[in-house]
């Protein structure tokens, strides 16, 4: 008999009663170090006092009015995102996939509004993940996500990861945009090299097409910059953001330059819930913390510690861990046993992680993680590796 909840997820048999910072606590009182962070969502940890206070305060005032009216919190969050990025304007939705839908529609509309309606196709990299709507599974191009759902939404082309020549060759008279994650998340923590991101910018400028970055996972401080593309010194025309923007409250945003947004006028796009007062109160509270002096320095300092420790574990457990990849606190362990077995061993020790493509275990701790918690996590990973390869541990 089918479960009451549609069985579309491979869930671990665990549930949690409460969270405190980097920790999740189950009903029996067992504490887990949360290096899953709700898939890079709870970047400020669980029950962050500033976020709790912001949500509580807004909950007693007004939850929802729809976009038929002005929403002051939305205007404030948009202005702050504009001030902090390349963007001039922001559309709010409720999820990453919706942010991508807006980005894709905007890119098509840009060309239609500037006299090139024949430009509507979008090129992506193999291994991409952009969400689970019909358009975003077509953009991601992964057979396992497309299988059985009929003909994929047309208008998406895909080239090998990081292949500049293939990307150049794929740009044709119908191309509207290139869409990439600066660091692939679901694909297994694969950073696009900075020179490759710069190359994409050049290709777009030469062809008169738009560059879209999907920073749903790698954005919001995760890599040690507010947005991952800042490391490469290139800016996109359009960017999708979500996950950590709400710290656990569902929210997504599509950021764009004024030029790229030229076709988006009253009636072009919309969302009933998008940018509602509750989501905006939390989003603004997240920015209060992330934009404060020293926040990103902390991420980079913790990243160095974690990474160094993990490299040490590669040396002591080469039979389990092949290598470490990623940037900031978006790290991946390329492992030799099946990644799900490694994650189960981590869980047995009390450490939560996330699976990724290419047999990678993703480590996505909250960005507020401290030194003691990183040391604890490294100890748990060491123990798990010993349990996985008892003979090699001597
Ligand atoms: C999670 C994710 C999405 C989809 O976000 P949802 O909120 O699940 O719709 C899109 N792109 C990237 C890079 C993601 O990591």
Detailed description of the structure:
The protein has 394 residues and is an alpha/beta fold. It has two domains: 16-34 and 293-393, Aspartate Aminotransferase, domain 1; 50-290, 3-Layer(aba) Sandwich (Aspartate Aminotransferase, domain 2). Helices cover 36% and strands 18% of the residues. The chain is built from twelve helices and 17 strands. A seven-stranded mixed β-sheet has the order 4-12-11-10-7-5-6, sandwiched between helices. β1 and β2 (23-25) form a beta hairpin. The longest helix is centred in the last third of the chain and has 22 residues, at 295-316. The radius of gyration is 21 Å and the shape is globular. The model has no long low-confidence stretch (mean pLDDT 97). Bound molecules: pyridoxal-5'-phosphate.
What is the fold named in CATH at topology level of the largest domain? Aspartate Aminotransferase, domain 2
Q: What gap, in angstroms, lies between the N and C termini? A: 47 Å
Query: In what order do the strands lie side by side in the largest sheet?
Result: 4-12-11-10-7-5-6
Low-pLDDT segments, ≥5 res = none
Total domains: 2
Number of strands: 17
Number of helices: 12
């Amino acid at each position: 008999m089918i479960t009451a909840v549609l069985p579309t997820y491979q869930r671990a048999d665990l549930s949690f009663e409460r969270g405190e910072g980097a920790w999740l606590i189950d009903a029996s009182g067992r504490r887990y170090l949360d290096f899953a962070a709700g898939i890079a969502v709870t970047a400020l940890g669980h029950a962050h006092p500033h976020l709790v206070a912001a949500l509580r305060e807004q909950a007693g005032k007004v939850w929802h009015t729809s976009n038929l009216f002005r929403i002051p919190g939305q205007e404030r969050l948009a202005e702050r995102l504009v001030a902090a990025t390349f963007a001039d304007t922001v559309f709010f939705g409720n999820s990453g996939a919706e942010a991508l839908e807006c980005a894709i529609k905007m890119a098509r509309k840009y060309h239609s509004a500037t006299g090139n309606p024949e430009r509507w196709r979008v090129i992506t990299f193999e291994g991409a993940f952009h969400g689970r709507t019909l358009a975003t599974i077509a953009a991601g191009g992964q057979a396992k996500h497309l299988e059985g759902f009929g003909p994929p939404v047309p208008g998406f082309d895909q080239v090998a990861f990081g292949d500049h020549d293939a990307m150049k060759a794929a740009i044709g008279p119908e191309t509207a945009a290139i869409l990439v994650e600066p660091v692939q998340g679901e694909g297994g923590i694969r950073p696009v090299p900075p020179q490759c991101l710069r190359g994409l910018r050049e290709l777009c400028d030469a062809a008169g097409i738009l560059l879209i970055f999907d920073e749903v996972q790698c954005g919001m401080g995760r890599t040690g910059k507010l947005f991952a593309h800042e490391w490469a010194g290139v800016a996109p025309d359009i960017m999708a953001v979500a996950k950590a923007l709400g710290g656990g409250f569902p929210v997504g945003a599509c950021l764009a330059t004024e030029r790229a947004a030229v076709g988006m006028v009253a009636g072009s796009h919309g969302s009933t819930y998008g940018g509602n007062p509750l989501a905006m109160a939390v989003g603004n509270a997240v920015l209060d913390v992330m934009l404060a002096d020293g926040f990103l320095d902390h991420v980079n300092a913790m990243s160095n510690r974690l990474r160094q420790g993990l490299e040490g574990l590669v040396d002591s457990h080469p039979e389990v861990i092949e290598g470490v990849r990623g940037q900031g606190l978006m790290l991946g362990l390329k492992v030799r046993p099946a990644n799900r077995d490694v994650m189960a061993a981590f869980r047995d020790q009390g450490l939560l992680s996330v699976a990724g493509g290419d047999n990678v275990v993703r480590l996505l701790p909250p960005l507020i993680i401290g030194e003691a918690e990183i040391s604890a996590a490294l100890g748990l990973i060491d123990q798990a590796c010993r349990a996985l390869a008892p003979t090699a541990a001597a």
